[in-house]
Structures are given as C-alpha cells and as structure tokens.
Amino acid sequence: MTTETEAAPRDEPAALVLDLDKxxxxxxxxxxxxxxxxxxxxxxxxxxGRTAAAMAHGLGTRPAAFTFEPHPRSVFRPDQPVxxxxxxxxxxxxxxxxxxxxxxxxxxxxxxxxxxxxRFVDELLVGRLGAAGLVCGYDFHFxxxxxxxxxxxxxxxxxxxxxxxxxPPYSWHGEPVSSTLIRVALEEGDVARAAEFLGHSWFVRGxxxxxxxxxxxxxxxxxxxxxxxxxxxxxGIYAVRxxxxxxxxxxxxxxxxxxxFDDGAPRLETFVFDFSGDLYGRPVDVAFVGWxxxxxxxxxxxxxxxxxxxxxxxxxxxxxxxxxxxP
Length: 327
Description:
Layout: E1 15-17, E2 32-35, H1 43-59, E3 63-69, H2 72-76, H3 88-97, E4 103-107, H4 110-113, H5 117-128, E5 133-137, H6 150-160, E6 164-167, E7 171-172, E8 175-176, H7 179-187, H8 191-198, E9 203-207, H9 214-218, E10 223-225, E11 236-244, E12 247-256, E13 267-272, E14 283-294, H10 301-320
Parallel strand pairs: 1-4, 2-3, 2-5, 3-4, 5-6
Antiparallel strand pairs: 7-8, 9-14, 10-13, 11-12, 11-14, 12-13
Helix pairs in contact: 5-6, 7-8
C-alpha cells in the first residue's frame, strides 16, 4: 500500500511512457528508481520496491519503477514470444501495490537495445530522469550487448553522487524467486506453487466473450475469455476466483481446447458458483487457486456432467480452505 505522501499527483498518470526526444517536467524528475522488467511483480520485486521506498524516504523524495515494454525477449526473439505473467496495465497496478506508485516505461525496440550502457545511465537515468537514487537486482543487465551491470551502475552512481543499492537474490522457503521459476510452475499447472513465489494468486484479466452456450445446456453456464497467445498455462481444470465489480467470487474453470466437443483454440471458461448475472462484454479478473485435473475427452454428456459435479465439489473444498481475497 502507498501513503498519501507517496502517491502520484492526481493529474499525473501512474504510468508514463518515455519519449527520448522530449524533456520531462520537473515534477517528474528526482525519484528513486527501481529498475527491472518486473514480469509477474513477485516477492523478489517487492523487495526491490521496499528498498526503493526506504531509500526515497531517507532522501526526502518518492520511489518509482523504471521498466521496459515490450519484454526485451520478444524483441530479440520474436519467433519465441515469452510467456508474459503480467500485461503492461496489470504490471503498473501491481507495482503500485508494492510501493512504487509511478512507473516510467521505456519503449523497447532494436534502437533502444543499441543504446550504450554508459549513455543509458548518464543521459537517461541520471540526466533526463534526474534519479535521486537507483535500486536494481543482482542480475540486472542493460544497454548495448547487455554490457551494463549492477557493478557498472554503482560506479556511475558514485561518479554522479547518487546512491545505488543492488538487491541480492531473494529466496522464499530456500528457493530463489524468479519470473522463470513462476512460468515453469504455471506451465506445469502448479498454480499453488506459483502463488507462493508471487505472493498472491496468479490472475488474468479480460473481457467476457460469447461462447458456444454449451455450458447452459449442461447446467454450468460459463464466462468465456480468450487469453494471450503467449499464455502457456497448462490446460486443465482449476479452482478459481473471479473478481466481478470488485468482489471475488468462488468458481471452477477450464482452460484448454474442449476435447469432448471441438478441440478448438484455447479458451478459459469459468463457472462462478451461486451467481446469475450477465457478464458479457464486462472486464473481469480470474485468479487461479488450485489445480484439479488435466483435460479429458468424455464418451457421453452424462459422464462429463458427473465429472463437472465432482470438479465443482472439489473446487469448493479447496476454496473454503483458502483465505478470501481482498477487493
């Protein structure tokens, strides 16, 4: 949570896309910058946020995040898109929740990638943004050929007279937290493990779309969503919560190709328990709480319905044992 004094002025956006050809107004300069890709905004990122907030408090200024969009790997290897844990808008919201109320976003392309590391620090971070301090992770690299390193950042910070803190690997229950580890857990369907490292359940956001209406005939009307093409979440059935109008509601969801019917494009279909409202065209969040089973093809609708009944009962049991989410 951020305090009133830390919050960005109401007439200034929480996210600001940097234009390297324009000067920043003075009100946006002088923050302590936490640097990183921040995909997932996990527990390790939260440690960067805490460190930046503490440094900013000591310097009498405010903390902010500095990140890149799109993910650099998508630029360097467009044929192998990275499984994004958090799209840009969600990333900004989650960064604010860990104490970084403003995010500076540097558009990333091959031209940006060619900026020498020294210019990146001296002209952009220190010069244009007027950074009062810098915080980065132990593995943060930047600039042309990724030659910029935490050690180089500290040296340039010393020359510029600003503090630079390098945050060491952050471990949770003996394992170093990373976005890669979280992606692997989600690809295995282990959403509970992913949540351990994130510090919260992994969730997606989207508009509810019209589906084939089969769920109604089966007694399980679902809210359908199309997830990003790069989503590599394991296909299967999950205990979930859906946020509707700020309220988290329990449910069960299927993510996959519907092998009993059409083996079509992957789709998320969520049945919300004890809810009958119209959700078409509305934005919702779906948080994945527990893994139930993999996708399966059933020989009859009766067998499918019986399994859905069992899935719902098991999901209710898992969710009853999971603390409620705050709005």
